[in-house]
Amino acid sequence: MALLGVKFTLQKRVQLAQTLWALSWFCFLAGVSTFGLGVYLKCELRRYSEVMDNADVHLVPDALIVAGALSALSNLAGVKLCRDCLDPERLPRWQSLAGPYLFLSSLLACLLLASSLLSYLMRGSLDASLRAGLRDSIRFYKDTDTPGRCFRKRTVDLLQMEFQCCGNSGYRDWFEVQWVSNRYLDFNSKEVRDRVRSNVDGRYLIDGVPFSCCSPDSPRPCIQLHIANSSAHFNYDVDGEEQNIWKRGCREALLGHYTCTMASIGTAVLLGSVAQLGVLIGLRYLSVSSLAAVGQPEPEADTEGYLLERGPLETVRAAIKAVTSAFSSGQVQTEPAPAEEKAADK
User: What is the DSSP string of 272-299?
Assistant: First the structure.
């Protein structure tokens, strides 16, 4: 028994084809938009790829790019199917192609849905990537003469100024690393020598931050050095100077930026995938009802459209049986030698 069977007159088939033709063009534009959003997200992630520890976060834009491109191509074929369903001469071409096309399009719609859901689920991986990447970038901030790390300082400074943040989790992260290169330290100074000797690893640690941590909203000149010492500056309170340097960590700022971007993109793609599923259901009804009229004495007669020819369980069993038979027929079977050949061998 057919699942969700519906009777269609010629007028209803024409109206359905016209509606699906317009929706297919809409889904085509949605696929192009998904492709563009994937490229945009890819570029955004590459802007600060130096402060990320792994490439797993690029799985989301890559999936969006592939799904968007395939969706656009699929919906172009859907537009042609809608037009051919109204042409009795072109419609027979789809007798063997409609089923595989709808099946592949269904898998593509599922890929779109998975891509949208992946946009919401990558927050944990992105957080871990930023945590490790920012930690290494702060540690290599001073290595402007080391190949492969020459631009870490520039990247971190631009990041802190653009997102109004400081450090990994906060400005105190700079107190735990030597971010001033040895080439700019005067080792003839007793203060420098004492700081280096007092550290187990021989690092020059100070309670200061780079200039990019300074907030332009502060009414006083930026205090970069001796931040934790309230008595080191006149009329200065480390707990009261809220706007002298940025208090928010860059991991929190970047995570919020990328999470918001991915959520917005995921919502748009989710709506597009829902529309794509609706178009596929309509195309299934249109193709079945239109192909049923092929070869009939009266092509304008009423026909029946359905979602599945049999019930869900019967359809699954038939699909499994077809796949099993296809694999078994593809196996090479050894045939016994004829009796005459055996006698000749003797």
Answer: HHHHHHHHHHHHHHHHHHHHTTTT-S-T
